[in-house]
Amino acid sequence: RTSPSPGFFNAVFALYSSTKRHSFLDYYLEWLPFWQKSVQRLNEKGFSARNSAEVLNEFWTNFLKFAEDSSEERVKKMVESEIFNSLSCGKSLSEYTKLNQTLSGVFPPDKWEREIEDYFTSDEDIRKIKVSFEKNLFALLVTSPNNESAISRLFDFFVQLIETDPSNVFNKYDGVYDALNYFLDSDMIFLNGKIGKFINEIPTLVQESTYQNFAGIMAQYSNSKFFKMNTDAITSLEDFFIVALSFNLPKTIILATMNELDNDIYQQLMKSDSLELELYIEDFMKNYKFDDSGEIFKGNNKFLNQRTITTLYRSAVANGQVEQFCAVLSKLDETFFSTLLLNTDFLSCALYEVSEDTNEKLFKLSLQLAKGNSEIANKLAQVILQHAQVYFSPGAKEKYVTHAVELINGCNDTSQIFIPANAIEVFARYMPAIDYRSSLVSSLSTNTHLLLTDDKPINLKNMQKLIRYALFLDALLDALPERVNNHIVAFITVVSELVTDYNCLSEEPNDLYYDFGHTFFKHGKVNLNFSDIVGNVIQPANGGDAMLTFDIAESNSVYFFYYSRVLYKVLLNSIDTVSSTTLNGLLASVESFVTKTVRDQKSTDKDYLLCAILLLMFNRSNSKDEMTKLRTLLASQLIGIREVELVDQEFKSLALLNNLLDIPQADKQFVPIAPQRLNMIFRSILKWLDSDLVYEPSFSTVRLLLLDFFTKLMRFEGVRDMGITAFELSERLLADSLSMCQIDDTLYLLELRSSCLNLYETLSQGVSKNGEEISEYGDEIQENLIELMFLNFNQERNNQVSTLFYQKLYKVISSMELKKLESQYKRIFEVVLNDKDIGSNINQSRLLTTLLGSLVVKTQQDIIIEYELRIQKQTGSDVDGSASDNDVNSKFKLPQKLLQKVTDEVPKEYLEYENKNSFIKYLWYWHLILMYFKDTSYNMRQIFIEQLKEAGLINRMFDFITDQIDLRDTEFWKQVDTKEISEYNIVGNNFSPYKEDIFEECKKLLGHTLYQLFNNVGCLTSIWWLNIKDRTLQNDIEKFVSEFISPILIKNEFDDINSKMDRLTSNDDALTIKLNNITNEVKASYLIDDQKLEISFKLPKNYPLTNIQVNGVSRVGISEQKWKQWIMSTQHVITGMNGSVLDSLELFTKNVHLQFSGFEECAICYSILHAVDRKLPSKTCPTCKNKFHGACLYKWFRSSGNNTCPLCRSEIPFRR
Length: 1216
Fold this sequence. Notes:
Blueprint (H helix, E strand, L loop, with lengths): L7 H12 L7 H18 L7 H17 L4 H15 L9 H8 L4 H13 L2 H6 L3 H11 L4 H17 L4 H4 L1 H11 L7 H14 L5 H12 L2 H5 L3 H14 L4 H10 L2 H8 L6 H11 L20 H11 L3 H7 L5 H10 L2 H5 L5 H15 L3 H18 L2 H17 L4 H4 L4 H8 L3 E2 L2 H4 L11 E2 L5 H20 L6 H20 L24 H9 L11 H4 L3 H19 L4 H20 L5 H14 L5 H15 L4 H17 L15 H16 L9 H14 L3 H4 L4 H16 L8 H22 L7 H11 L11 H16 L3 H4 L2 H9 L8 H34 L5 H10 L5 H9 L11 H16 L6 H13 L2 H12 L5 H5 L3 H5 L12 H23 L2 H7 L4 H14 L1 H21 L4 E6 L4 E8 L2 E8 L10 E6 L5 H16 L5 H15 L23 E2 L6 E2 L1 H11 L16
Parallel strand pairs: 1-2
Antiparallel strand pairs: 3-4, 4-5, 5-6, 7-8
Pfam family, one: zf-RING_2
Family: Belongs to the LTN1 family.
Protein name: E3 ubiquitin-protein ligase listerin
């Protein structure tokens, strides 16, 4: 039963041959059954791959020789039967070449051909049983000798099958397709005519369902010898594709066929006018979806050329499939990839925009081509640089630098793209002008205007690109230290100075932009000696290690401006280490340089800026005489000059003079300029202010310098003592300048408004010190200052410039008496509630909202008094109070517009995804609502609460806050001070307009608003919390409140009782109040005849989610019914009236005191004091003489429907 080994059947046949003449074993009865059983066993059994072919061939060779010894027909039939059984047993003769040769000659070719035809005409079920039978027959036919006629007939048979049922033949007969392809791939030249005829018929036979089969045949034909033998073959292919293109087939299927065609034939088809394949392929490229992962482009890439690769790329971009397009690149010819890189923006679109793996492959492919093509190398370098400028960050730094270094190492010339030969030119490309707002944030201040400034805001995106480029360059130099030089270090240092402006002007500052290594302060090999630098400033050097060289001194003015700021910083850093002797020794040369600059008409703007830097430095020295000489020189330049001269040139002298007016240690009576000369300057200024030129744009710089001049000058007490001229001039200038702030097209508007505030602050200090009355301009100035709050400045951004201005404006407005702003109450209210009036200026919103809050508190005090007086008046009248109560309440409610705002503008997204400015404004509206509760009376508080309840706003706000706060983010709240929860100041963040700061402020303000709601709506908190159906949420809220809010509220309650405990106990020696901070319990007891009457107030850990519990500890001297009624009344103050523990305690102590003082309790509520209005029983029944509270009796009348006594049922005439 084991498998036979090679040699076994040779041995058997040898045994048979040697014994057959002796008839040792019977041929038919013993030998024939052996061979039959062997073939059956071999058909059933598998063999190891190593022996199977050899054993099978050995068996059939010997079996056929054995059968030749018999002349009987039955043996021949048996052999034939066993051969066909073996062919249909599942083994494929394609794996047994020798066996195929052995069996092919057993029968003539006609026999094999007929068997094949019989097979195809047999039932489908039979064909399924006979696995591999047809293929084995076909293999025997094509290898049998003299088979041409049989093969020709079989080919005709196949063609007839196809023609008979072209739509189903390939599904019905699996072997037909393979057989035809075999013929096309063979050397059977005798079939040429038949094949040509069949190919010509295919266009008429092909259908959409059979396209794939016929297409395979046509593709095989195009690559066969037969195609070249048939002159009409190309026509057949054209006809085939004409038909195919009419089908509704995906283009990928048809193009896949074309991709398999012989390349020469494909090119011929492309030229066919009837097919228009170029348009067809172009359209395919435009709409290609990469859904086959680029399989269509495998092989010869027939469809890709310089035009189609571009079309395919643009299609990928349009469909957002650049990543998939990149996956195709590995299948591209190098020439096509080069074309793509050179003729499209592919690199800039794909590099660093795809996945990391794809990106690295793309870079390596591009780098390979770059090494042999400088144009590609430069393009690759530009793309790396462009991406570094737009996306450079600490995380991406290594990637960009690594690629740049690899590219430079492979293509050295590209280093010029990364490391500029002319850094000043690069700087000028991104920074074409000086933004005047730089004067507001830089140390040079108004000296900025010594150079030409632009009133239009600088393009911050370009500024950011320059900064990122410098950061990239800085990192690149870390990797290539040999390429560091002073020009590059100077460039990086200048850009590092530019970062200050960017971070102050941008709405999204980035402190990481300061992270430069190759600067003068850290790396540069320049001479930082103070004396040498001063010498360089006066006389620039030719080069070397000098700080200021000729090429910088003569450079672009914008670059020079920022370089000058660096120069100022270097001097500032080193001046403290310079001795007074050294400073005094340098003064003469400085004085000479300034004098020469001022008097020389050829002096440039840059000379004046260098003078300003030197004056700022040396003004710190103690050499008063030299500085006085320079002030006198500069002051003399201003005396008697005409307005035109001032505007054209001499304003620069005023700028320099201003630098010498900062004298922090001057004596009280010190006057920086001789009084006589100063008065002459005042007369010149008065003349300038009276001129027609004063309101012209050309006067704008002079106006700024004059404001700065008077701001500094009026700080000197000696100047203020000279008389009112200086004050009058200052206030006139200030009034005019403030009025100009209200004109949109005023030049340097943002700087002008800030300068006005500086001068006002100085003048205010001067007026308060001297006790002088404000001049005729006083009211106008204050009105214009108030108007500044409402102005919308077109150039305003939420940046540091805005912060500085609104900080100053708030300081100025806050210094005014609040009554000056009361007339603006309605206007401020309308502006705050109408966002369109103030747009996205968050600092303006902050200022107006905080002022509105102050005005709300102030006006509420008067309203409370008015309201309570009206209530008392109604109480004392004979009129039924129900109607009049409503009338009173309607005039003292929360503003409906404010309630509508918090109803309509609830943020829809979570804080993380919501506009931060809109979010905080919404919280500010609630903050304003809660400010109405501040120090208000009990009656008004109830009106407000009822109003919020009716609008459904209390529960809605509770839900909003607990949804917005991440209740499980305990780490954040543990870092928040309790004062930040219990207290909130709208201007507490110093007018920071940045998203990150406002985001954190919003989180804390949510906590504060929750705290304030708890504080003001009392027991409504508990009702809301208990009605939450989501138990998980309810538990999270309880944990959060218990940990972060409840302790503050409980402490407040205890502090409130502590602060007023003496007042309660001093009036009654029998009263004792004890506080237990551990159990959060308050106990009040009365000592009556050596016995205690005691009550306790228990504050739960989750207060106010759970109400305070009032418990009667011990009763003495009163009935149980009255005691219970007192406890209920005391509890009602907390749970029903939103009162505090102190309110409840006061009611209880008064009840006890009055009870034992002989006062009669109300016969309805059994309390002496009414729980709500705290009044004594004042209504007496004329019949039974029992006393009642007016409120209790009124409630009884309403519920009973008549005015009879609840005890004796007698009629009681009632006047409330």
